[in-house]
Design brief:
328 residues; mainly alpha; 12 helices
Amino acid sequence: MTQSGQHQPQEPQNTLQTATHNNSPPVPVLAKKTSPLIAILLLLIAMLSLQGGASLAKTLFPVVGPQGVTALRLGLGSVLLLLYFRPWRLKMRGGNLRALLMYGLALGCMNYSFYLALQTVPLGIAVALEFTGPLAVAMFSSRRPVDFIWVVLAVTGLLLLLPLGQSAGGVDLKGACFALIAGACWAVYILAGQRAGSSYGPGTAAMGSLIAAVIFFPIGAVQAHTSIFSWEILPLGLLIALLTSAIPYSLEMMALTKLPAKTFGTLMSMEPAMAALSGIIFLGEFLTATQWMGLAAIIAASAGSTLTIQRKTKIETVDIPGNHPSGK
């Protein structure tokens, strides 16, 4: 949920470490005899939930604007995470407050920038451009010759998607820049989340989301086109928070306990394609052949970097410092 630096395959972590914090909520797991196909299905459902929530969020833009949607997503999402993790009951080592603050600030800025991008850029393209952030983190963590291939693919995808000449099919430059800013924030979120998670454990997700909400909720609420506190809007905001945070986070946790890291990372690389399909189905955002080629190049770069960077292919235990970040 990331959102959302937690489970992302692009992180330069080979394994996810064991949770050692007492009183933490149990990580949802599948039965030992469960088929890996069930885990794959759950992961696909999680991605559909995430992108469906993003499509629903975009339909609210004419009513409250992207800033208002950001406020709803962060505010209500933080409440859900606080109720689930109850960080006040966790025993946390602490001591890395700066990393936690950076983690929360990056999370809020990522959501804010991403929804501003969605205002003028199709969902699939916005997600693909945002993916360049974690992809850069993964590629910079390795210096092997094979990584040059993924760099070339990623750059090719960007050249096909960015509004350079007529190749991008009229993609808005300002919106594309917001998507790239969201990607940069995602990279900071991953790096800061790794450091904060080592000190604050499972409570990192809720505490980081709370920091993001404290900063960006009032900004979004003030800039919203109309009040976000009406009974007509709040239920939709809660549904967006569920679809983009609680549901995908839980399903991805269950999938992580059954899938090898490479399989999980490769499947997660499909997310830009899922976003594009969601945009077509729910928003009528049809992409050009050139744009599909750009998406394919970024997906290939993401999947390739995952397959070549991650050496260990079995995840035995999971401790993830945050939900899916972007609320896409």
